[in-house]
Amino acid sequence: MNQILLSNCEDAILEIYQKIENNQRISSEDALILFTKADLASLSYVSNFVRERINGKELYFVRNFHIEPSNRCIHNCRFCSFSERVSGMGWTYSFDDMIDIVTNLKEDIRELHIVGAVNPNYSIEFNGRLLSKIKEIRPNIHIKAFTAVELDYMISASKMTLIEGLEFLKKSGLDSIPGGGAEIFNSEIRKKICSSKTDSKRWIEIHRNAHQKGIPSNVTMLYGFFETYNDRIDHMNQIRELQDETHGFNAFIPLKFKNKNNEFSNVNEISVVEEMKNYAISRLFFDNIQHLKVYWPMTGIDNARFSLHYGVDDFDGTIDDSTKIYEMAGSQKNPELSSEQIRKIASEEGFIAVERDALYNIVD
Ligand code: V47
Fold this sequence. Notes:
Strand 5, helix 11 and strand 6 form a beta-alpha-beta unit. The protein is α/β, with parallel strands linked by helices and 364 residues long. The protein is built from 15 helices and 9 strands. The strands form 3 sheets. Strands 8-1-9 form a 3-stranded parallel beta sheet, covered by helices on one side. Strands 2-3-4 form a 3-stranded parallel beta sheet, with no helix packed on it. The model has no long low-confidence stretch (mean pLDDT 95). Helix 2 (28-37) packs antiparallel against helix 12 and helix 7 (148-157) packs across helix 10 (200-212). Helices cover 44% and strands 12% of the residues. The site of ligand V47 has 20 residues, from strand 5 and strand 6.
């Protein structure tokens, strides 16, 4: 690493950067020092150094599409702007509604992301039939579906064990699991923001079992409201430990709390500086998760571009205006980017966009 660029850093920070250069794992204590003391310029430089060591100059993206089957939910997460309870606008797609969407999907879509509310109308049998039918219509599409919270509900409501439920869904066509529902693992905060839903122990158990059954997944962290840096680090540490065990996570996705139209609208959103710091430290902390994703429909395109200089190598996908979760929380309306637009963004920022499939195999 370039010592001149780091010459303003204090010794404790330089020692951590030295560890990183030598490919040594940083500790939770190191992460806390970075969160509290490191400057943004050095974090950008070092996280980009690590990003290039792991992923070169590549910026990954996939042609994807979301289906959000319903926003009628048994849970009452206080940060949620999506639920009918707060938006006043509810929907529940039927089996045929969803099959119509799939039938009309553009030919080039490679990944279908299905997540929504925990709605008792959708049993595991319903979802199994849905997955099978989708595969019948589009055998080559990758289905990334159901957060651990949705899986927890549908499997617990059936007579199946967790393993039987996961095996059943995999056989029906489930290829991977998205990273939602992790929120922040600290149980006191969970009580405050989403008291009724799957706790962190169960969330981890579901992802562990999925990985063991050959179903990879992603993992998110909802941050930027009441949590401390130690809460974020504890969350990341639990993920890092699970990844050491299973190697099943493809990407880490930090999700900054958005405050529009939810019960926490009085809580200020964190600054873009804090957001970039969080991307950089995530990149430095996760020596065992290959990809760091920016979810641009949530951050907005400008901040997503910015994050490319803080360790991010994955731009999610083209989306095709198919998600409402973040629009309803105050983010960009009608999110959609063409692959040409993503290529242009990458090249303007000094990276090379590469189209991937859902499992990060390069397809162009
Ligand atoms: O679990 C909800 C978050 C998640 C708000 O796996 C909010 O590739 C901030 O998990 N402010 C769902 N965040 C979305 C998700 C996801 C998105 C993109 C890609 C992938 C992937 C997964 O959204 C929820 C929750 O943590 N969320 N409301 C809000 N107001």
